[in-house]
Design a protein that fits this description.
The complex is a heterodimer of chains A (112) and B (114). Chain A has 112 residues and is an all-beta fold. Chain A is 0% helix and 57% strand. Chain A has no helices and eleven strands. In chain A, the strands form two sheets. In chain A, strands 2, 4, 5, 9, 10 and 11 form a six-stranded mixed sheet that branches. Chain B is built from no helices and eleven strands. In chain B, a hairpin with a 6-residue loop joins β7 and β8. The chains are: A mainly beta (112), B mainly beta (114). Chains A and B meet through β4, β5, β9 and β10 of A and β4, β5 and β10 of B.
């Protein structure tokens, strides 16, 4: 119940294309859903986050879509660039608790 | 931009030895965390710390693990008697707010147990 399932494990997208990574959860108590970006040798860096009171949040080329009834959320990267090549993790947390529960990660490669 | 710093970047230790991983959280943050990432796997929560005590811990965080904030700037993770399966990247994170997150992560310490 505490799991967050992420897909795909790896993704290759052409430069300028749209990258889409999906996550699903079971625990309806989760109410905070961040996405982290991790480059090799670095720690996870917060990219964008959403709470379930909105269905979409956009920051620049990055958009989170949230479907509360389906218990799914996804990250869309528009106009994907080679510099976006990294591992992306979705995560979830329960308000009042402090731990982030991470998905398995998606290794994204943007081909020039 | 303020950042979480971790030392050392790589620690090699013999099995059974004690190891201390060090972190300097962002200066005005009040909540501190340790996570670990075994090679190729997801990031896993170990422990959270607030007001000089553990506020939450996972089942991974057994009696072999302890955390401490020895002074106003450092936050440490101690593993008393290391096992081979403790080999992983250990990330420290901090946040200013329990409810509004976000947690800011350091670049990690790679712990290799021989």
């Amino acid at each position: 119940q505490q799991q967050v399932k992420q897909s795909p494990q790896s993704l290759i997208v052409q430069k300028g294309g749209i990258s889409i990574i999906n996550c699903a959860y079971e625990n309806t108590a989760f109410d905070y859903f961040p996405w982290y970006q991790q480059f090799p040798g670095k720690g996870p860096a917060l990219l964008i986050a959403i709470r379930p009171d909105v269905s979409e949040k956009k920051e620049g080329r990055f958009t989170i879509s949230f479907n509360k009834s389906a218990k799914q959320f996804s990250l869309h990267i528009m106009d994907s660039q080679p510099g976006d090549s990294a591992t992306y993790f979705c995560a979830a947390a329960i308000q009042g608790a402090q731990k982030l529960v991470f998905g398995q990660g998606t290794r994204l490669t943007i081909n020039p | 931009e303020p950042e979480v710093t971790q030392t050392p970047s790589h620690q090699v230790t013999q099995m059974g030895q004690e190891v201390i991983l060090r972190c300097v959280p962002i200066s005005n943050h009040l909540y501190f965390y340790w996570y670990r990432q075994i090679l190729g796997q997801k990031v896993e929560f170990l422990v959270s710390f607030y007001n000089n005590e553990i506020s939450e811990k996972s089942e991974i965080f057994d009696d072999q693990f302890s955390v401490e904030r020895p002074d106003g700037s450092n936050f440490t993770l101690k593993i008393r008697s290391t096992k081979l399966e403790d080999s992983a990247m250990y990330f420290c994170a901090s946040s200013s707010d329990r409810y509004n997150q976000p947690q800011h992560f350091g670049d990690g310490t790679r712990l290799s147990i021989l």
